[in-house]
């Protein structure tokens, strides 16, 4: 990756065309005319997946986190074209009002939500964390959330909610 | 003045069914499942996308602004400059429903000639897409000629300094004089004088400012916007030159405010663009826009001179406050007044002098931020208490105990607080809850600190604050609450639901709250100043009780029992000791409906109305009531690297009465994290007025790796002036945290760092004197 | 984000290298730097070559005492790998403190090296491992020590179209200890103010090999060779460790910025080198 430090002038050629891309999001297939510079965050929001939140667009806050093949990524740092054919899940795709995901339920019951703007990203990060560490220590949880800024809750109830959900998910797995 | 607090009052409240329980908040499920639409999630067919072009220089003269290329770009609908808005100004005074004349602080909407701060808007663009709007921005040509600027308040006060505002940069002064200051110092055994400094702070709410505006068939400008204050509709109407009833503001659940969405942000730009294009327009600030697009927390320079007896009794306090107002006035005069009133803290100071001044500079303008001047004062008065204790050689908590303001005693302005003052109890409990001290090891030293506070809730009483709420019951027994109150994440709407169901005896599933619409929900004032629960909660309670009164009267008639014997609970109506007399709540409502008995009520709650404080002495009533409490901290300081780790963070607050304890804890835990950032890592750095920290990787709010598990201890004196004896907790949760951390660090290293934030570098400098 | 570029997603390395030969082309791996820089207008490539389909560049393996990882290996891959845990504990420590989870899940080891930032967290531990980089281009491949890769602030020896395809190092002996410390203004997701990696090998009570690699205190990450020389061949004493720490601090060429002053950075190097060498020696002694 050669580095150009100065503000390089854009080159003369810019055929740079939009094309129709197909994304698989929350089990649905969507098609959208998309230029190459469109981020996954923008593409998802344009397609109506507005639970994916825009907070900083540079990977500092985690509000836009989505699961890409089960792994949390910042959708603001992902170009939409590069995730064609992959499985994308947003917080809303994990569960619904009538059938909440254990993380969603635990966040609600613990009062781990205040303004709620960071919540979808936190839940996505937590889901990704629990996939690797089903019985996380407090350190695991802190590390797993280190890319998600929350300005309202102070994280205490978020930790509690994730521990609750992890326990529920472990016992559900044992039952199966 | 009200009678002092009677500890026996309000004890009847102990039998609450819903209030005081950690019920699931009405807003939580939608937020957890991603179903809640925020202001930025609304779109309309044919909408345009807006951008704001901003000045990269903090002090300059705009000599040329050429938007012709941008206007000619395909897909650009409109580019507006100050030349297109010859007679328009934006009000910046205190927002909301107050009928009082506003301060003459209206400012230019777009730069006409003079640029006064980095980020001041030069032009507005509306285009078919965000891409086109961004490209259009890059096509605008302008020349800015540097203009002499001034970048700190002390320089700005000197004669001959460049003038940013008015004739001398002084935007406000306040004085408080009480007792005999000279006699007080004469009686002292020792005098301790220190100066403390606080920094510019950014709210860093996760949701950047955003809105969508359209002009409807009645020529009303509708704006769906993320705001703490839907009642800006009046100022917005004034700014665009239409009657007040031609602007409607619809809020949404707000993605964080903390005072940063108290002033107008995107609204006037949106209104102008929608009005000029006749099309819906959406404007979303980028994070970079947000950093330069709303006012910051004021840096204060606070000089405290305390006279004290050997036994710890404070005999005199002389305080000088200087705040940096930045380039425009906004709420600086009020923030300064809060700071002045809060200056002595939760202590009884008989001989007091406060001189406070707010000064304009070419830094970013400063305005509301959780704590609103009181937080800055607490940073100083609680560090000063530790310094005084050390100087006279007595225990820090003993010094405080010797001086705490007690129930019924007068505050700085001579006002006797009507509620319980439980400062001492809160401080002692918080301190004890720190438990066993973590052992020091190697280069790591352990320190502890405490800060107590007094923080008003509710607006300044000379603003004559009111709030309205409507409560009604449907014929199937469900309940509707309507109120303009905005919900900024603390559960403001859910609290109204909990209050209404407490009064009406139905369950949480049976209530819906409609809020935050300036045209169709009764106006409730602002969600600022820790007033929403106090004001709107009282209004909702009054409205619900009126409805209840009519329902109960009808039930009493049906049962043939006295009204006092009718019980409403669990969606049922019954009579005391009469098991044969019962019906469902829905049946009672239907009965009332059949007979035309009114099933709804619109109530207005009025805070105490007072005159302004005496301008010479600052004496009089300023607020309705205050919250008291304390925060205790244990830190580990790495004496080699200077890093500070907060090990324990314990809060104890008397909240009067919890409406929802989980929500109260949420406020406390969040306040603890924000206060930790204020103390240790957060700082908006301006160099000659230019912002050096315009992103969340440079402006460092605490992460999950930084904040310890926060312990919240909630006391309930049931003595507040809010519903069911509630006090406010929104701002108080933050106020004592930073000084408690500063005191803990000083305790750990034996040196005090007098300016926030306490960075690793400052710790190392204090210990090792590098350079 | 608004930018104008063409985007390719080649299916194999040869195709990727062929496109990367064209003028104005840049490779996109994790994107956690490039996308940020493009959005800010600091990078304006004409053509972006996404490596997302090149699974061949991602992986960790150990064979004949040599650890090799693909350039597209992510920071999270490092954290989950038993091989890395065993052979590069300092790298694990730096990976733990690397940004936040989502960035770790996508950011790649090669990307962290190639971004050229002196504050890149993975680089000091790789210096302490004497890691070697394999650079490939359409013209061929070469292997260089990581130490000779950087030639100035955000400048390196790559020729146009060259990619870091592999990073490898010799698995350390059981008589060795490597440590990393990140000094920053915040514990989570922060830009490094001083990064220090040290590695000691001990044989018969003497320090056989010492590495002291410093980040964020010079235009590039670098080895404080004077400090290493003081330690090598010696039985370490507090006095020797102190003089190594002094030598490291003297070798630093830090700058003042919004995060810290040069003086503080130098102080941090001194304190941390002393601390980490002391801890490593104590563990091995």
Short description:
The complex is a heterotrimer of chains A (176), B (771) and C (285). Chain A has 176 residues and is of the alpha+beta class.
Mean pLDDT value of chain A: 92
Terminal CA distance of chain A reads 48 Å
Name of the top-level CATH class of the largest domain in chain A: Mainly Alpha
Radius of gyration of chain C: 19 Å
| Count of extended strands of chain A | 5
Tell me the CATH topology of the largest domain in chain A.
Answer: DNA polymerase, domain 1
Question: Which band does the percent of strand residues of chain C land in?
Answer: 25-35%
CATH architecture of the largest domain in chain A: Orthogonal Bundle
Could you give the count of β-strands of chain C?
A: 14
How many structural domains does the protein architecture of chain A include?
Answer: 2
CATH architecture of the largest domain in chain C: 2-Layer Sandwich
In this structure, how is the largest beta sheet of chain A organized?
Answer: 5 strands, mixed
Largest inter-chain interface? A-B, 53 and 60 residues
> What's the multimeric state?
heterotrimer
CATH fourth-tier homologous superfamily of the largest domain in chain A = [2Fe-2S]-binding domain
Could you say which structural class the secondary elements and strand pairing of chain C correspond to? alpha+beta
Number of helices of chain C: 11
How many separate structural domains of chain C? 3
Kindly report the CATH topology of the largest domain in chain C: Uridine Diphospho-n-acetylenolpyruvylglucosamine Reductase, domain 3
């Amino acid at each position: 990756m050669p580095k150009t430090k100065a503000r390089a002038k854009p080159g003369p050629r810019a055929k740079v065309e939009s094309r129709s891309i197909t994304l698989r999001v929350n089990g649905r297939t969507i098609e959208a005319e998309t230029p190459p510079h469109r981020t996954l965050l923008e593409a998802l929001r344009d397609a109506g997946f507005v639970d994916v939140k825009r907070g900083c667009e540079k990977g500092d806050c985690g509000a836009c986190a989505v699961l890409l093949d089960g792994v949390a990524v910042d959708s603001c740092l992902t170009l939409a074209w590069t995730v064609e054919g992959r499985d994308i899940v947003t917080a809303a795709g994990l569960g619904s009002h009538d059938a909440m995901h254990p993380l969603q339920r635990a966040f609600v019951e613990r009062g781990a939500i205040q303004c709620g703007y960071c919540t979808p990203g936190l839940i996505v990060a937590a889901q990704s964390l629990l996939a690797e560490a089903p019985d996380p220590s407090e350190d695991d949880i802190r590390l797993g959330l280190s890319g998600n800024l929350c300005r309202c809750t102070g994280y205490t109830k978020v930790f509690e909610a994730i521990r609750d959900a992890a326990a529920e998910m472990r016992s559900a797995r044992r039952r199966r | 003045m009200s009678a002092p607090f009677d500890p026996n009052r309000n004890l009847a409240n102990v039998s609450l069914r819903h209030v005081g329980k950690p019920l699931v908040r009405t807003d939580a499920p939608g937020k957890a499942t991603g179903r809640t639409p925020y202001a930025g999630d609304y779109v309309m067919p044919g909408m345009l996308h807006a951008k704001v072009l901003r000045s990269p220089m903090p002090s300059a003269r705009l000599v040329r602004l050429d938007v012709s290329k941008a206007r000619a770009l395909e897909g650009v609908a409109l580019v507006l400059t100050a030349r297109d808005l010859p007679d328009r100004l934006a009000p910046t005074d205190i927002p909301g429903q107050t009928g009082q004349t506003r301060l003459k602080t209206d400012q230019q909407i777009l730069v006409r000639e003079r640029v006064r701060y980095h980020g001041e808007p030069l032009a507005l663009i509306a285009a078919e897409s965000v891409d086109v709007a961004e490209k259009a921005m890059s096509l605008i040509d302008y020349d800015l000629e540097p203009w002499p600027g001034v970048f700190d308040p002390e320089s700005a006060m000197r004669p001959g300094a460049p003038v940013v505002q008015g004739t001398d940069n002084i935007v406000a002064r306040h004085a408080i004089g009480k007792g005999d200051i000279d006699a007080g110092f004469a009686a002292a055994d020792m005098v301790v004088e220190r100066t403390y400094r606080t920094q510019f702070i950014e709210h860093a709410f996760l949701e950047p400012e955003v809105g969508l505006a359209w002009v409807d068939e009645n020529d009303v400008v509708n704006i769906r916007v993320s705001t703490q204050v839907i009642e800006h509709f009046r100022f917005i109407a004034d700014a665009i030159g239409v009657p007040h009833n031609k602007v409607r503001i619809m809020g949404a659940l707000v993605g964080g405010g903390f005072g940063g969405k108290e002033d107008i942000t995107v609204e006037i730009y949106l209104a102008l663009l929608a009005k000029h294009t006749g099309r819906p327009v959406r404007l979303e600030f980028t994070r970079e826009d947000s950093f330069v697009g709303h006012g910051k927390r004021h840096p204060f320079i606070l000089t405290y001179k305390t006279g004290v007896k050997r036994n710890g009794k404070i005999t005199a306090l002389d305080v000088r406050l200087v705040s940096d107002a930045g380039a425009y006035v906004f709420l600086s005069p009020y923030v300064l007044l809060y700071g002045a009133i809060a200056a002595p803290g939760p202590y009884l100071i008989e001989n007091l002098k406060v001189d406070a001044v707010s000064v304009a500079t070419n830094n970013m303008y400063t305005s509301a931020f959780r704590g609103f001047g009181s937080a800055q004062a607490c940073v100083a008065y609680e560090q000063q208490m530790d310094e005084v204790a050390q100087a006279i050689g007595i225990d820090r908590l003993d010094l405080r105990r010797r001086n705490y303001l007690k129930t019924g005693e007068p505050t700085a302005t001579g006002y006797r607080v009507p509620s319980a003052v439980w400062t001492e109890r809160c401080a002692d409990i918080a301190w004890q809850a720190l438990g066993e001290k973590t052992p020091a090891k190697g280069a790591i030293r352990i320190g502890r600190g405490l800060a107590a506070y007094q923080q008003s809730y509710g607006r300044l009483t000379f603003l004559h604050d009111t709030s309205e709420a409507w409560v009604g019951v449907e014929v199937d027994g469900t309940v509707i609450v309507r109120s303009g109150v905005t919900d900024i994440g603390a559960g403001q709407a859910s609290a109204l639901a909990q209050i209404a169901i407490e009064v009406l005896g139905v369950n949480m599933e049976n209530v819906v709250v409609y809020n935050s619409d300036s045209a169709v929900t009764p106006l409730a004032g602002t969600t600022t100043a820790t007033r929403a629960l106090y004001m709107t909660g009282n209004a909702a309670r009054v409205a619900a009780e009126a409805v209840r009164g009519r329902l109960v009267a009808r039930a009493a008639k049906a049962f043939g029992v006295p009204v006092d014997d009718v019980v409403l609970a669990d969606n049922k109506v019954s009579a005391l000791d009469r098991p044969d007399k019962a019906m469902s709540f829905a049946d009672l409502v239907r009965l009332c409906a059949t007979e035309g008995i009114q099933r709804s009520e619109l109530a207005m709650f009025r805070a105490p109305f007072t005159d302004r404080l005496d301008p010479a002495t600052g004496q009089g009533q300023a607020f309705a009531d205050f919250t008291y409490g304390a925060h205790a901290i244990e830190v580990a300081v790495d004496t080699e690297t200077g890093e500070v780790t907060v090990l324990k963070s314990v809060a104890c607050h008397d909240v009067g009465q919890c409406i929802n304890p989980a929500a109260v804890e949420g406020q406390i835990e969040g306040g603890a994290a924000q206060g930790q950032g204020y103390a240790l890592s957060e700082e908006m750095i301006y160099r000659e007025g230019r912002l050096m920290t315009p992103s969340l990787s440079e402006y460092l709010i605490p992460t999950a790796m930084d904040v310890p598990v926060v312990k919240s201890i909630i006391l309930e004196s049931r003595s507040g002036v809010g519903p069911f004896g509630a006090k406010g907790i929104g701002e108080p949760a933050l106020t004592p945290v930073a000084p408690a951390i500063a005191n803990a660090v000083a305790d750990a290293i034996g040196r005090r760092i007098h300016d926030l934030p306490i960075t690793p570098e400052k710790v190392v400098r204090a210990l090792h004197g590098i350079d | 984000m608004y930018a104008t570029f063409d985007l390719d997603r080649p299916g194999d390395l040869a195709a990727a290298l062929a496109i990367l030969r064209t003028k104005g082309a840049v490779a996109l791996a994790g994107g956690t730097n490039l996308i940020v820089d493009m959005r800010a207008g600091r990078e304006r490539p004409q053509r972006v070559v996404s490596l997302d389909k090149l699974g061949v560049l991602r992986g960790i393996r150990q064979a004949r005492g040599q650890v090799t990882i693909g350039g597209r290996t992510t920071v999270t891959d490092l954290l989950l790998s038993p091989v890395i845990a065993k052979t590069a504990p300092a790298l694990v420590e730096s990976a733990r403190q690397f940004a936040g989870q989502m960035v770790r899940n996508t950011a790649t080891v090669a990307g962290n090296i190639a971004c050229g930032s002196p504050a890149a967290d993975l680089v000091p531990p790789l210096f302490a491992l004497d890691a070697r980089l394999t650079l490939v281009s359409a013209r061929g491949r070469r292997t260089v020590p990581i130490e000779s890769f950087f030639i100035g602030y955000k400048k390196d020896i790559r020729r146009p179209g060259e990619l870091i395809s592999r990073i490898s190092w010799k698995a350390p002996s059981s008589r060795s200890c490597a440590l990393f410390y990140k000094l920053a203004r915040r514990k989570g997701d922060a830009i490094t103010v001083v990064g220090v990696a040290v590695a000691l090998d001990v044989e018969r009570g003497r320090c056989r090999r010492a590495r002291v690699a410093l980040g964020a205190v010079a235009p590039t990450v670098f080895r404080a060779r004077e400090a290493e020389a003081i330690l090598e061949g010696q039985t370490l004493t507090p006095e020797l460790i102190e003089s190594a720490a002094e030598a490291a601090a003297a070798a630093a060429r830090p700058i003042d910025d919004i995060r810290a002053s040069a003086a503080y950075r130098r102080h941090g190097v001194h304190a941390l080198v002393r601390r980490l060498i002391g801890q490593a020696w104590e563990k091995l002694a």
